[in-house]
User: Fold these one by one.
Assistant:
Number 1:
Amino acid sequence: MPDFERLRELRAHHPGAVAEAAASRDRRALLRRDGRLMIVAADHPARGALGVRDVADAMADRYDLLRRLVITLQRPGVDGVLGTPDIIEDLLLLGALDGKIVIGSMNRGGLQGAAFELDDRFTGYDAATIAAMGFDGGKMLARIDLSDPGSVATLESCARAITELAARGLMAMVEPFIAHRVDDRVVNDLTAVAVRRSVAVVSGLGTTSAYTWLKLPVVDDMELVMSGTTLPALLLGGDPSGDPEQTYAQWKQALELPGVRGLVVGRALLYPPDGDVAAAVDAAVSLVRAGSPT
């Protein structure tokens, strides 16, 4: 059981403990021998995206979320976590990140449902802090709506972040989508043609692509998507609304494609329908580790 009382005391009386925990954390290489990655994502709350299936505030209970994250990070084969500063720092203070990959989430300003959702400001980590904390990279969301001027500001900011991360030798994990509004809601186009187009756009961002990785949705005809890039790719779990067995089957098929290196999954594993976080994580790990790098 995580020691939440100690966490609260450190938060109140010893804020410097965050930097101390980061400095003393055991680190590891980004990729190990099998060339695969299994990352748990927990950056949804900072964008106001708290819902899981039909529970609108499932991720609002921070203690419940942290318990689920600690369980996940303790499972064999889980390489690390993707999160915003508040969650990463909670996990640091709980001692859950030794020997793990840490990816800092950078742009969370495009709040879910907001009129400015596609003007996705960088309100989280920056490259300098990610490097100073000894983390492994930064993640950014790049949604492109050709009818929304906010998209170009997001693309410009993403390009700057990719350049700044690369200058420090750190991974830039880019999650691209072609998007549009339907009844004032931002909807991502999950056709293979649209995803491949988004890949083409974000692959050219920044002054170098040497450290750029892609975080891509699993869609029909993933072969077409992956034909559009030589960059390493991780699959995102997406909205966990479907049947878990069908989801795992889609992941398995996509993980066998050249260039796909693993999974970055959040809600689908942290909040499985049967509540068994460890079993859900183990099933995903088995898919990632069963594949071979190309």
Number 2:
Amino acid sequence: MKALVLGATGMIGGNIVRALVAAGIAVRGLKRPGSPTWHLKDVPIEWVLGDLMDPLSLVAAMEGCQALFHAAAYYPQHSCDLAGDLRTAVTGLRHVLAAASKTKIEKMIYTSSLTTIGPPAEPDRLADERDWYLPGSTRSAYFEVKYAQEMEVLRSVGAGLPAIVVNPTVVLGPGDIKPTTGALLVAVAKGQVPVWVAGTVNIVDVRDVAAAQVAALERGRVGERYILGGHNVSVRQALTLVATLAGRRAPRWPVSLKGIDILVRLAEAAGRVPLIPPPPLEHVKTMRQWRPLNTEKARHQLGLVPSPLEKTIEDSLAWFRKHGYILK
């Protein structure tokens, strides 16, 4: 079997590559000219050039592959042009879906987002795969785009494409070259995060996300969505653990959600989050949407076994130190 990984140069995609190679599956990776690949120089991978907005390059990349892992879905950095972001996101995804259909991909694993999981329909349970984000319920282009893309994939299943959707939660671990979610860890390790916000998040190791996606090739059910999550933990607990492992003082001062709303309004006017390092504005403005999640479906059907949170954070910090993101 040969698998094509879209987004192979990214954090999740790079770890999918490693998990596929470990499983004995040949890997082809799509990259744009100039995309960094240094973090995967130790694994055998066939690189091909292409772009989600170039349909012919996608067809060429998929030829001869039986499996497709799409971990390169578009995401907006701000909410200034929702119509344009939706157009770009859906157009690129339709190119991928059309190429997968044309080349007769046998199984597609699509990496969506935790933001498409809405609040639980009943107040006495955690949110799970039955719960959907309500379009228009936030002012975030990120939420709107991720929902629209997931709907495109699920509609393609009705047209005969054997696709599975996975919804990773807050992903940490090695290989975050940009960095993305790991930017907050770097900021804490540099002593730049003195505050914490009330709320609960679900954090998962990127290596567990990758392993579950590879498992979905055999065990995943077409047309289903799977929350790939690890540990439900308060934001304060998570930040304190990161600070402790990094040898820094834990964040001391709470910031209310009302205070966050004020910061967001100021940030939208200025184009950035004032006084606060990462996460990006698009995630800060939706903190009221953060919630614990039920990950039992992926544990039972895909064999997802979450790594200890402390190990995930330790390995993340070690990777950032090794590659110069944090001074040793």
Number 3:
Amino acid sequence: MPADPGDARRPAGAGIVTGRRVPAPARSLLGRFADSWPGRIAERSLREVVGIELFDRSMTLAAQAFTSLFPLLILVATLRPRQGDQVGTALADSLGLNAQARQALEAALPSASSAANAFGVVGGLVVLLSATSFSRALVRMYVRIWNAPRPPTLRSLWRLIAALLGLVLLILLLTLVRRTLAGVPLSGLAEGLVAFLLGGLLWTWVPWLLLARRVPVRMLVPGGVLMALAMVVLSLAGQVYLPRALSSATRQFGALGVSFTYLTWLFVIMIALVATTTVGAVVARDPGPFARVVGGAGEAAPDPRR
């Protein structure tokens, strides 16, 4: 996205307050807001989100996540003997499916013993290596947002795998927490707090790992915290939306309906991930309150020629 040569001569936020139809008092108020820290963050975040092509990148990430994480979850489900002989039962627990969607998934997937034979050691390795396509898509996103050098793929293969395993571990931990807290008073609040803490740690660690530590951890904290908040909000929204959507899709399309619904939901999650990562980078670069706390403003600044 080419830079406007006049940007350096205009005050922050000038683009949204110079319209001739805006009354003078409103222009003054908007000008003060645009020059404030929230105003700068809002305007720069909007520019960056538009520049990164939010919806296209989110759809790419959602498709890669669907084809990467689902096979990994099925593979992990074959290694969990406590779930009995049904892969569908373990996978449904990990995804939090309702009863109707659970039945459709269990009917569509083989038993644990059959799946284990189908995967085997070589098959499991192939699934794991193929799943790194999602990690590579994340690398491209982080490189674009932070304007960081792209790490060599072969030498960073272990990073791609570690990031995937971290995501799967998060899903399994949240499943365990949900099962453990079932029926406990204020279980929803406790589950949300755990999801926020684990999500914040994961989404700070993943970009630090995938970018080979080229961006300091302190600069990645805002994006991690924002994504953790988004995870909690989406978890609450999902408890309302997913049961209804899954029931309707399962009645019409069976197990395929589960796939359609979760691909749509992954798209929403990836929109949140791209947006929170972008806004987090803007916050980290801005010489505002966060920069005064961590002393890191101006690091990993975006390329003005983008």
